[in-house]
Design brief:
It is built from eight helices and 13 strands. It has 259 residues and is an alpha/beta fold. β1 and β2 form a beta hairpin.
Amino acid sequence: MYCGIDLGSRNVKITLARNNGITALHSYNTIEFYKKYGRKEGDCLTVDFSGLGLPQLDLGPGGTDKLVTTGYGRNTIKIKGGKDIPEIKAHVLGAAWQTGLKDFTLLDLGGQDSKVVLVRDGKISDFQTNDKCAAGSGRYLENMCAVLGMNLEDLSGCRHNPVDLNATCAIFGESELVGKIIEGYPVEELAAGVNYTIYRRVKPLLLHLASRVLVFTGGVAKSAALGEILRDELGAEVVIPRYPQYNGSIGCCVHAGLE
């Protein structure tokens, strides 16, 4: 069995797979994962797989299972019995496996960062990341939804008549949004403006590393509005894999040997 773990800043994603494909996908709140199912042993973290409701892995000498990890948390602590790989590599492997593509630009919008990777012949050609500001991330969308009094699913349906929002900082963006509400703008148009703000935040990276095909991953990729905005504004074919939010953990399984 192959086990891939993406230690995200907001959620930990786990993919289990065999050579015939993916067998299970699981997501856990990051804080709960470490508090309830992780036990520190020296410099490593032992994961209580049975407590998570997952099969125990055979990772010892001569073991038949393989564990590969990636993500925000891999730089902080190692998972016992696992091999860690860079996030960019994991996400490219996952995107290529899920789509069957070899030449594309990858846009991954995570909980607190964004990544854009140029892929040529299945290999990383160039990449840029933004982990300094949350304004192009899932956390930003969650905060804006709280201000608007709507959920992410509702937000994902809003793209028409967007109100121009100028703040590029997540914190100042909330203040600006409150001001626009007070001015009487319709909530749907403000929500569309929020979606366009995400696009404008990543636009320079996408133009610098442009391709005919854009593979869109991360939890934010579930936003229909943002997918349509990217397609219309960039004039590119936008491909959203079947499991966009699990792309990193799927890439870990590919690295472990999943064909």
